[in-house]
Backbone:
């Protein structure tokens, strides 16, 4: 268990003499291509393959020009899963050896993905390294992941991840300061003198919640939310952090600041194996929360994934809010959030697999709607260009332009802001929305541990079927209903900001 309270200290280590920086020979691995969520592998891969972690970390640092790297600030944190602290020590030692001037690290190495994006932007860091495999299982037999976010606070663009991959395929050595050891348990600054030409290296251990809490206070009306959650006619809520990184944020913001009873928040202690559970906020893996909602004791429920960037919303009696409908409802009630009253709304967006529910809201409001490939970096590009304010995806990710990552806790606060303004139940708000706009039905199927070759063959066969001209206007009978294909394509995206083209997406059918 982790304690998130400690005194601030300044810890100087320079009196023992400069620490040695060394170069270690290594050999490349062919499988270190970062995906949309970084490099994810089983923990045993990082533990048993010699220098596997070191190679990838060096590839990240080498992808940044030395002139930008020297004396720069970077942010490091993770979801607290197994191997998190081991990896942080390696990253610290290698950051020092590669000329980084300052690292900002979450207390105990823990910081949510949205908070890391917030801190990168707040301190104008050149980027951050996030240690998470999101909703994947943790523990020694589970998964581990490492992701690089750039200076805008968002996931690295494809040009950067391609560069990291190319470096990883030809790497011959990495730089490290093996004698450098950081204390992650104590808040404050630690300074190290290195045996190289760079200035003293500084590590700052920061409260994982502070910067993020300050950010959301300036987005939402906390007085109205406190009245909703702990006032005279307050609603009852149930929040499940699923033993992921969101726990300390939930306790600080919902319980301490907004006045929810302590027992409103469950599973709030981050654990290396997430309590043996799958930290995925859906009806299957958050079944305990769903069951606890069924008797009507709670008016609102939510669950978060391992790194806190995704959330599931439930109403009374376990009424499930589809993520596609969730972002559409927030869009339709966006001016319940003071932040958007001040900034206005620049645009809405959804990922290609997400239903078109938000499209209907955008059309009615005469607001631009963007359909992007999967991956938050595409939303980030639009936000940086001032084209986008709110976005979401079917995999329980929703966010605004306050940071450059999806944000589970932000989405919950957004929903509570709607409830505070409308004083209706979650179910009534959804039913009113469907009456106003119609209802988009959507389903998603996840297949795990399948044969890669067979899966690729199946997708190729599916693509050939739906791309046939004769497929359009075909009719399909399901029980007593007839459905007709209106559109089917292999999705391709031309970025309106930089004109880059993304092809070979999952087939898209309406």
Residues:
């Amino acid at each position: 268990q982790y304690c998130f309270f400690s005194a601030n200290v300044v810890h100087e280590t320079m009196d023992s003499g400069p620490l040695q920086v060394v170069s270690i020979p290594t050999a490349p691995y062919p499988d270190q291509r970062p995906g949309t969520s970084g490099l994810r592998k089983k923990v045993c891969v990082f533990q048993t393959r010699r220098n596997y972690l070191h190679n990838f970390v060096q590839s990240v640092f080498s992808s940044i020009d030395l002139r930008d790297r020297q004396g720069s600030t970077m942010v490091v944190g993770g979801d607290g899963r197994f191997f998190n602290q081991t990896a942080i020590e390696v990253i610290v030692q290698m950051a020092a050896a590669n000329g980084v001037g300052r690292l900002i690290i979450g207390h105990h190495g823990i910081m949510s993905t949205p908070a890391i994006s917030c801190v990168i932007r707040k301190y104008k860091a050149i980027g951050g390294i996030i240690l998470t495999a999101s909703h994947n299982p943790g523990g020694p037999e589970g998964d581990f992941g490492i992701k690089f976010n750039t200076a805008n606070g968002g996931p690295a663009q494809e040009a950067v991840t391609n560069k990291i991959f190319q470096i990883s395929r030809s790497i011959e050595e990495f730089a490290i300061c093996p004698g450098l050891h950081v204390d992650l348990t104590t808040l404050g600054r630690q300074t190290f003198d290195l045996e190289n030409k760079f200035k003293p290296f500084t590590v700052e251990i920061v409260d994982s919640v502070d910067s993020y809490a300050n950010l959301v206070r300036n987005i939402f009306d906390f007085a109205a939310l406190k009245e909703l959650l702990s006032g005279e006619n307050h609603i009852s809520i149930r929040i499940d952090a699923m033993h992921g990184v969101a726990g300390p944020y939930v306790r600080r913001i919902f319980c301490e600041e907004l006045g929810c009873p302590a027992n409103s928040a469950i599973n709030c202690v981050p654990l290396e194996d997430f309590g043996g559970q799958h930290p995925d906020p859906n009806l299957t893996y958050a079944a305990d929360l769903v069951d606890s909602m069924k008797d009507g004791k709670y008016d609102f429920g939510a669950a978060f994934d391992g790194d806190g960037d995704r959330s599931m919303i439930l109403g009374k009696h376990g009424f499930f809010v589809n993520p596609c409908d969730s972002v559409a409802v927030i869009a339709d009630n966006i001016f319940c959030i003071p932040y958007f009253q001040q900034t206005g709304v620049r645009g809405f967006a959804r990922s290609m697999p997400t239903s078109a529910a938000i499209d209907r809201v955008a059309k009615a409001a005469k607001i631009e709607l963007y359909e992007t490939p999967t991956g938050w970096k595409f939303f980030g590009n639009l936000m940086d260009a001032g084209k986008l304010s709110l976005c979401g995806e079917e995999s329980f990710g929703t966010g605004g332009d306050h940071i450059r990552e999806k944000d589970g806790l932000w989405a919950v606060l957004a929903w509570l802001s709607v409830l505070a303004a409308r004083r209706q139940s979650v179910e009534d708000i959804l039913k009113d929305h469907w009456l106003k706009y119609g209802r988009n039905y959507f389903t998603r199927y996840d297949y795990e541990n399948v044969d890669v070759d067979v899966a690729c063959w199946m997708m190729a066969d599916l693509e050939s079927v739906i791309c046939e001209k004769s497929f359009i206007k075909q009719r399909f009978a399901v029980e007593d209903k007839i459905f007709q294909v209106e559109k089917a394509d292999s999705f391709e995206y031309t970025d309106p900001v930089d004109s880059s083209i993304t092809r070979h997406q999952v087939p898209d059918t309406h």
About this structure: The radius of gyration is 23 Å. The CA atoms of residues 224 and 420 lie 7 Å apart.
